[in-house]
């Protein structure tokens, strides 16, 4: 292989920071590792996503403790990818919940995704020997769920398929804050390997319609104005559309996967080449676009073996 696989050489540690985006509403954000968050209620806390291992989750819990000593009773999963979910056991939450689509993904491909992601980005799985396996939600909902944290209304909404089948936002209406998961990224590579790319472009427009003045993206700095939210949505759409158009062009010329990747790289390098994790995601994004544009509705399950085979094909 001519290039290091995925992000195996990325060993630069990042320290997340709690950023207050509204009254008692916090993003837990780093430069470009996966973001999480939490909401402090009168009597309890809701954590938004769990990090990749119990060890990393305990770091998040310790940082929450610098803000409040109220118990973390609830844990919400914006979607399933191992890097966001395998720390769940450390929270010992009374209630873990997600969309039905996320629960289905956990059941269908949870272990395969775990093995795949650890192989792709080992730094993000510090203390992986402690992972007890998959922690399943206690409850799920199909489209929308309203939760009252004391007197505060919190809305959980599945706006449509996007980064995965089950992506769900957490909206705090009185604060104007939304936790968007990986539906939107802020000038970071957009991972599309488990996505529904045509649907994603429409889902981003539904996200745009949510009444928010601050947002936590999947990766990158939190957006702290309406304009910043709009710009992140636009740049995420641009990234997805650029790859789709490049692969569509490659297919029209009769190219296989490697040829489509080369065209995608030619189109994307000048525009996105300096974005964090771009070099990681491009091969997986091209593969998913290649499948979807040839009529494969649902993403194939990624395994460590499939990851390595793709990288060998693309970079041979």
Summarize the structure in short.
The chain is of the alpha/beta class and 316 residues long. The chain has a single domain (17-315), classed as Metallo-beta-lactamase, Chain A (4-Layer Sandwich), CATH 3.60.15.10. The protein has eight helices and twelve strands.
Structure explained in plain terms:
- Residues 33-219 form the Metallo-beta-lactamase domain.
- It holds the Pfam family Lactamase_B.
- The chain has 316 residues and is α/β, with parallel strands linked by helices.
- It has one domain (17-315): Ribonuclease Z/Hydroxyacylglutathione hydrolase-like (Metallo-beta-lactamase, Chain A, 4-Layer Sandwich), CATH 3.60.15.
- The chain has helices at 54-65, 82-85, 100-120, 197-208, 226-252, 257-272, 278-293, 304-315, and strands at 17-22, 25-29, 36-40, 45-48, 72-76, 95-99, 139-141, 144-149, 152-157, 169-172, 177-179, 214-216.
- The strands form two sheets. A seven-stranded mixed β-sheet has the order 1-2-3-4-5-6-7.
- Helix 4 links the parallel strand 11 and strand 12 (214-216).
- The protein is globular, with a radius of gyration of 19 Å.
- The termini are close together.
- The model has no long low-confidence stretch (mean pLDDT 97).
Comma- or semicolon-separated keywords:
single chain; 316 residues; alpha/beta; Metallo-beta-lactamase, Chain A; seven-stranded mixed sheet; five-stranded mixed sheet; 8 helices; 12 strands; 17% strand; globular; RibonucZ/Hydroxyglut_hydro; Beta-lactamase domain-containing protein; NDM-1-like; Metallo-B-lactamas
